[in-house]
Amino acid sequence: MILGKVVGTVVSSQKEQSMESLRFMVVQPVDTEGKATGGTVVAVDAVGSGVGEFVLYASGSSARQTVVTDKRPCDAVIMAIVDSWEIEGVEKYHKGDAARAAMR
Predict the structure, then answer these.
(1) How far apart, in whole angstroms, are the C-alpha atoms of residue 44 and residue 46?
(2) CA angle at residue 22 from 20 to 25, to 5 degrees?
(3) What are the residue ranges spanned by the domains of the chain?
(4) Cβ-based neighbours of 84, under 8 Å, separated by 6 or more
(5) According to the 3-state scheme, what is the secondary structure of the chain?
(6) Which of 15, 51, 74, 95 is the most buried (most CB within 10 A)?
(7) Rg (CA), the chain
(8) pTM for this predicted structure
């Protein structure tokens, strides 16, 4: 799993039939401080995430192991919305904490 931030959406009016009901989100990988670490990926949203939320996503063959993506041609899937994370006893992020909103 990779920690990321949803930074956008992708709309496609025509797609492979097995992908018809799926939403696509643009995800920016981030480090444990919430800072961008590389290029963005387009991921299938299996959990109803929104722009600005921190998420956990998987890529490669692991992306096809959720109920939503099983046997579908996808290479990345958002499988969790992050509520908080802690590193060495220090809370680095908590969803809804206005004091940490600048991290977003």
Answers:
(1) 6
(2) 135
(3) 2-103
(4) 91, 93, 94, 95
(5) CEEEEEEEEECCCCCCHHHCCCCEEEEEEECCCCCECCCCEEEEECCCCCCCCEEEEEEHHHHHCCCCCCCCCCCEEEEEECCEEEECCEEEEECCCHHHHHHC
(6) 74
(7) 14
(8) 0.85
pLDDT for the residue numbered 101: 54
Q: In the structure encoding, which two tokens stand for residue 77, read together?
A: 């899937």
Superfamily of domain 2-103: EutN/Ccml (2.40.50.220)
Q: Write out pLDDT tens, residues 21-56.
A: 899 999 999 999 999 999 999 999 999 999 999 999
Give 58-88 pLDDT, tens digit per residue: 988 777 767 677 788 888 999 999 999 999 9
| C-alpha triplet 76, 55, 75: angle, nearest 5° | 0
End-to-end alpha carbon distance in the chain: 20
83's CB contacts (< 8 A; 6+ apart) are: 94, 95
